[in-house]
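Bug report (template v2)

What were you trying to do?
Predict the complex of my protein with 6-O-phosphono-beta-D-fructofuranose.

What happened?
Run completed; filing so the output is reviewed.

Input:
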Amino acid sequence: MSAEDLRAPSLGECSVTSPLPPETLWVEDGARVLVSTDPGELASGSFERAGPRRRIFFEPRAMRVGIVTCGGMCPGINNVVRALVLELHHKYGVREVLGFRFGFEGLDPETDTQPMGLGPSEVRSIHKAGGSILGLSRGAHDPAGMADTLVRRRIDALFAIGGDGTLRGARALHEEIARRGARIAIIGVPKTIDNDVPFVDKTFGFDTAVELACLAIDAAHTEATGVRNGVGIVRLMGREAGFIAAAATLASAEANFCLIPEAPFDLYGERGLLAAIEQRLAARGHAVVVVAEGCSAHLARADRDASGNPSYSSAEADVGPRLRDTIAAYLREAGVGATIKYIDPSYMIRSVPASATDAILCGRLARDAVHAAMAGKTGILVGRWHRAFTHVPLGLVVKERRRVGPDLWQQVLDTTGQPPLR
Ligand code: F6P
């Protein structure tokens, strides 16, 4: 990773004095956060630290700001929208905030979707509800058309709240705007229950989703232990990264097998999953299996969603029921009388309001996103990294993938006692 990769783009010189009070905990522009805290990897560089700057790029009272929420639903979106609006309005004195409707579709001139005005009264209690008051959609839209909309509506800064597809779209929009020499700040706020945004140690929505996933695992455990040879199967979201399944497995401490996309496994054979479940039933009389939707190409072939991501929502692509039926058939064949209970909390883990820890994270990300835009930063996301808040260039984010690593996976193996499944 070069110093250039880590440089947060900027719209230009900051010549306006910030309207924030003098006692603000200012962040100097040179303040940095290491990419790696491993002493052997200090040379990998550092990110710019997020936070309020003494001198800013925009004259806030003359500004028009846009907000767009994209991708799948996620707990905390409304918290971020509300905190953006309140910080812009009360702290900086920005009077015009537009909420673009239904994701990038709301910026596409072809669709003629009208934005809504957002002020303190519109956002007063939205953080108590799940979903997004602006609506969401998946899918890319022509960056030139979206840039035209921003220019036509005289937007100075756009906050794009979303996951990897959104951040790719925000990056393309930023490049289009830079090519035109326009001075519009594009700031991403990383949102996904999957927690798979690179260089962000936790996306908002993840904690809430894990809390609810734990309830499903606890229920599966209760069902499995209440009968002779009970098998509880919990199917969770996680198409390319198994963070939800891994974290819920660790937190509930009731799962015996955890299947995620990053850890390939065999179904059949002496060391395969089916034989391991049979052995577990013989030894302990019950088994709980947590399965991430994208864990197995040999159980289900994914479709593609509008953003080009693998999608497991169709009956044909859904790994859960196939695994349940395969386990049932195998145990029947092996002469093991088992009772299988299958639980899929599905969208319930993401369509709820944010938990307390997510709500705190949402507020902080939103306020730092506002400070970043005011200081003329652009083409970045605001993220949490090693517990500090940073500006991560979108160019870097779109190049990398974040996946469950060996350390977290080892914790899962230690907690479950799951044997090698290959
Ligand atoms: O946004 C992430 C996510 O919740 C994934 O975990 C899941 O695979 C996907 O969205 C499903 O979303 P949808 O059915 O809305 O496309």
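What did the reviewer find?
The mean pLDDT is 96. The pocket of 6-O-phosphono-beta-D-fructofuranose is lined by residues 71-72, 163, 192-194, 237-239, 293, 305, 311, 313, 350 (CB under 6 Å).
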